[in-house]
Amino acid sequence: CPPSPIGRIHELDGQVILLGVGHHSNTTLHLAELMSKVPYGVPRHCTIVENGSRVRIAYLENDHCCQNFSLADVWLRRNGLQKEGQIGNAHARLVRSRDIVKIAMEQLAHDPLVFLHPAEVACEECDAARQSIGYGRS
User: How many domains does the chain divide into?
Assistant: First the structure.
């Protein structure tokens, strides 16, 4: 797992609660994309200090509109991995982080572009992510 708060939750077998939002807002699914090494991303960069000098690091970030993350509801429900209910006026979902990542990685193994809108939908964010396919990832 990448060293990040989301990776740490996964590592510690923590749970994710989505309160009043669906999986389209679930950043744990980005962890599944990273671990699956999806072939898409948007070029980004960051600057670090290395040996006293600033160094620009270029990378691809698995960024897109995330609307298709809502597919996780179907996958998790079908496998009985998601608890749901009402908390106040909000719909709540409770899922183990590892279950989210596992089920998403299984789907990404079958279709690495499952979270991107098809090209004919003309989603600007998904199209931008798709532009990087073929450039490779490290």
Answer: 1
Chain-centre distance of CA 38, in angstroms? 10
DSSP state of 121: G
Helix H or strand E encompassing 16: strand 15-19
Q: How many Å apart are CA 93 and CA 21, to the nearest integer?
A: 9
Report pTM. Answer: 0.88
93-104 tens-digit pLDDT: 999 999 999 999
Per-residue 3-state assignment (H helix, E strand, C coil) for 38-102: CCCCEEEEEEEEECCEEEEEEEEECCCCCHHHHHHHHHHHHCCCEEEEEECCEEEEEEEHHHHHH
Q: Are 46 and 65 in contact (CB under 8 A)?
A: no
Domain-embedded: residue 16: yes
**pLDDT tens sequence across 115-133:** 999 999 999 999 999 998 8
What pairs with residue 19 in β-bridges? 92
Exposure of 15 in the CB half-sphere (CA atoms within 13 A): 10
